[in-house]
Amino acid sequence: MRGVITSGGPEEGGLELVCEAEGLTLVAHQGTDPPLALNIDLTGGTRGYRQARAAQSREDLVRSLGRLPRGSQILDASAGLGRDALVLAAWGFEVLALERSPVLAALLADALERASAHEALRAPLARVDLQQGDVRQWLSRHGRVFDAAVFDPMFPPRRKNAQVKKDMRVLHRLLGADADSDAPETLAVLLRHVRHSVVVKRPLHAPCLGDLKPARSLRGRSTRFDVYLPKVPAGHPPESSLAVSRS
């Protein structure tokens, strides 16, 4: 099936969600400049290599979670482009990935479906449950407690030039400059719904999220992983295993 969902035309600098043979693509028009296109591909290039080899590599994200056993239930509170969810699943974790933008969730669902055709990714994909919704509303409705959570809030770009990655430029056009202005409140909710930790991804030199200080941090080349300890009431009943679905 092919089609186009449009928000403003090319001459208006609008967005188009295009369905073609290679899958869903979000096109951001820029007036007289060439348009930018976002098509999530979890199998090709360096991104695909990272996913396929994640089970053997030393991912900083996984290291920041500590000594969690395989099969642990991880909440990805901001699924985005799906990279973190698939890395975690490749390490053997059961991952519930939530994305509150309906458009971005549709792009990611399409990418996961296309990736399922690759044998190397079938096992980790079976451990990813993607759902569209706001994480705070979802947790309020379901009352789930996970072993850990990862949270990668998006913040306004520091620069507005060609050096900013194309994917992020399209996402800022789609989601707006303050897409995660409520990130501190989201972190506070996550801390009440995990047993072990919440890992927040931050730019290397960015301040801590809100007024909360992490228990520890793992610093990479350009990214910092701040680890926060949970606030789960003592005696909270254990959670049943994560139901995996691809609905």
Describe this structure in words.
This protein is α/β, with parallel strands linked by helices. The chain has 2 domains: 1-39; 42-228, 3-Layer(aba) Sandwich (Rossmann fold). It has 8 helices and 11 strands. A 7-stranded mixed beta sheet has the order 7-6-5-8-9-11-10. A 4-stranded antiparallel beta sheet has the order 1-2-3-4, with helices on one face. A hairpin with a 3-residue loop joins strand 10 and strand 11 (223-228). Residues 1-5 and 237-247 have low confidence and may be disordered.
State the domain count: 2
Structural class: alpha/beta
Beta-strand content bin = 25-35%
CATH class of the largest domain: Alpha Beta
List the strand order in the largest sheet.
7-6-5-8-9-11-10
Over the alpha carbons, how many angstroms does the gyration radius reach?
A: 18 Å
User: Looking at the chains present, what oligomeric state does this protein adopt?
Assistant: single chain
Give me the CATH architecture of the largest domain, please.
Answer: 3-Layer(aba) Sandwich
Secondary-structure element order, N to C? EEEEHHEHEHHEHEHHEEE
> Tell me about the biggest sheet?
7 strands, mixed
CATH superfamily of the largest domain: Vaccinia Virus protein VP39
Q: Quick one: how many beta strands? A: 11
Mean pLDDT: 82
Weakly predicted, low-confidence segments? 1-5, 237-247
CATH-assigned fold name of the largest domain: Rossmann fold
Number of helices: 8
Q: Considering DSSP H and I runs of 4 or more, what fraction of the residues is helical?
A: 25-40%
